[in-house]
Amino acid sequence: MTDERQQQKRIIVIDDDPVMRLSCLKILKKEGFFVEAFEDGEMGLARIREQKPDLLVVDLKMPKMGGLEVISRVKQIDPDICIVVITGYATIGTAVEAMKTGAYDFLPKPFTPDELRLIVNRGFERIELSRQSKRLKAEKEKIERRFISFVSHQLQSPLVAVQQYLDVLQHLGDLPKTAGQRKDWIDRSIARIKEMRAIVNDWLTISKIESGQFVANRELLPILRIIEDVIDSYSLQAKEQEIELASDMPEQLDSIKCHEECLRMLVSNLISNAIKYTPSGGKVSVKAREDADGIYISVTDTGIGIPSDKLEVIFEEFYRIKCESTRHIAGTGLGLPICRKIVTELGGTIEVTSAEKRGSTFTIRLPKEASTN
What is the C-alpha to C-alpha distance for residues 262 and 136, in angstroms, rounded to an integer? Predict the structure, then answer.
């Protein structure tokens, strides 16, 4: 049974040989394509201007207008029309010339119905790939515009705040009674500048990941030591916030081929988030293990948790859960997207389980094959 989608695919055949036109019509219509046939280039071009086809089958040697001229004019009308050349005078030279003019493929006469079907279907595969490529390019450009717009907005807010703080400082005057106010405004300015630097640094990190700079430069790393180093670097912050930072590490883990900064960033982002979203008196636990499928690193907290309908969107760039309990927590909204991008590039996975007011667990799996690539 013919695929109904074929009905949407339009083909025009231009050939001065009536037997060849009829043959192409029968073969291609039987496949379910919408096909029109014309005996010379002018007639075919007039129809192409009215109703652009997806694919053109054109004879190379015709008395009024040759196939090469038809191809050239068709490319001026719509460069995306896929063109297949057919001719009884097939040589390497004519094939190359047709390709240079803009033809996609070349079919010498005489040909069988199967050969025509094969070359036409191959042409439509190319058309679909081209359309997909354009859609992906357009989507990428849309995402990039949205990303730049969002980053600009994120930077604008702290910039305006810093400007306002500096304006206040400019008019405070150098008096003893204003010293306390001056320090307060300077501290606020420094905090907002740190916020801007964090956004810029995270943005640059995403750019490096997407360009392949991180994952391309891998080395064999002692993963256990790196995890323990990162945990140790957060011990003081956890203590200051009265949060217990615990670890459950095996005696050894296989080394893994990875970029060290990527690995440190993965573990660091998860521990940092866990501490930020866990109130005083809570606990953050880091655990590592391995099996035949890979190395697993999980970070569990007893924090505020994540609503079930937000478990997927937390990995979107700049997304942050907004509620009364998160209002005072600083962040760029890029930490988790960075983690997912890194893990994805390494061929691993990142998963989250959570319950509101009870806490969350983020688990990273790094495949063992990453250590041998």
Answer: 27
Cβ-contact 9, 55 below 8 angstroms: yes
Tens of pLDDT, residue by residue over 97-152, are 777 888 888 888 888 999 999 999 999 999 998 888 888 888 777 766 666 666 66
- The string over 295-316, giving b where at least 16 C-beta atoms fall within 10 Å of a residue's C-beta and e elsewhere, is bbbbbbbbbbbbeeeeeeebee
CB 215 within 8 Å of CB 262? yes
Task: Round to the nearest angstrom and report the end-to-end CA distance of the chain.
Answer: 45
CB atoms within 10 A of CB 79: 8
Digit-coded pLDDT (tens) for 216-274: 666 777 888 888 999 999 999 899 999 999 988 888 887 777 778 778 888 888 998 89
CA distances, 214 to each of 69, 208, 366 (Å) = 50, 6, 15
Q: What is the DSSP letter of 252?
A: -
Among 209, 192, 201, CA closest to 340: 209
Are 199 and 155 within 8 A, CB to CB? yes
DSSP letter string over 41-103? HHHHHHHHHHS--SEEEEES--SSS-HHHHHHHHHHH-TTSEEEEEESS--HHHHHHHHHHT-
Residue with tokens 């150098």: 174
**Spatial separation of the C-alpha atoms in residues 74 and 244, rounded to whole Å:** 71
